[in-house]
UniProtKB/TrEMBL annotation:
Signal peptide: none annotated. This is Protein GrpE. It comes from the Bacteria. Participates actively in the response to hyperosmotic and heat shock by preventing the aggregation of stress-denatured proteins, in association with DnaK and GrpE. It is the nucleotide exchange factor for DnaK and may function as a thermosensor. Unfolded proteins bind initially to DnaJ; upon interaction with the DnaJ-bound protein, DnaK hydrolyzes its bound ATP, resulting in the formation of a stable complex. GrpE releases ADP from DnaK; ATP binding to DnaK triggers the release of the substrate protein, thus completing the reaction cycle. Belongs to the GrpE family. Keywords: Chaperone, Cytoplasm, Stress response. InterPro entries: GrpE, GrpE_head. Homodimer. The keyword Cytoplasm applies. It is found in: Cytoplasm. GO terms for biological process: protein folding. The gene is grpE. GO terms for cellular component: cytoplasm. The keyword Repressor does not apply.
Amino acid sequence: MEKEYSLMNFLDRIIVLEEKFCSFVSETKKETDYDEDRIKKLKEIIIENIIIELIPITDSMEMFAKNFDSNQTKESEIIFLIFKLIKKFYKKFNIKQISETGVFFNPDIHEAIGIFPTFGKKKGMVKTVLQPGYTRNSKLIRPALVIVYN
């Protein structure tokens, strides 16, 4: 009889320990899920900050490329290589440039800083992009600065 009582106590303790263990596993999983979400959010913030820092560099490199003399030097080749690497980074993280002319002005992605008079069908269309804008995963990072036909 005493052995049966002792066995019952032992089984009860096993059940309690099993419940505690299951509770521990459940809580640990919740904390792990929470940490994974925080890590994903932090990663997005870091990527966005890097992009914000890279955009002015990209602007400068694009101006350099437009005004570049065809007599290439080793330094200019290096600059073009860096420019290609930045573009590759943009593609990897789904960063799109807003630089198209001849499209209708969209206040969600364009910022009009000037108007150009017209009497044709071009009214409301982007005439010139003075500074390209950028989006990432359809989220606006920087609007394109444009001149619009009016």
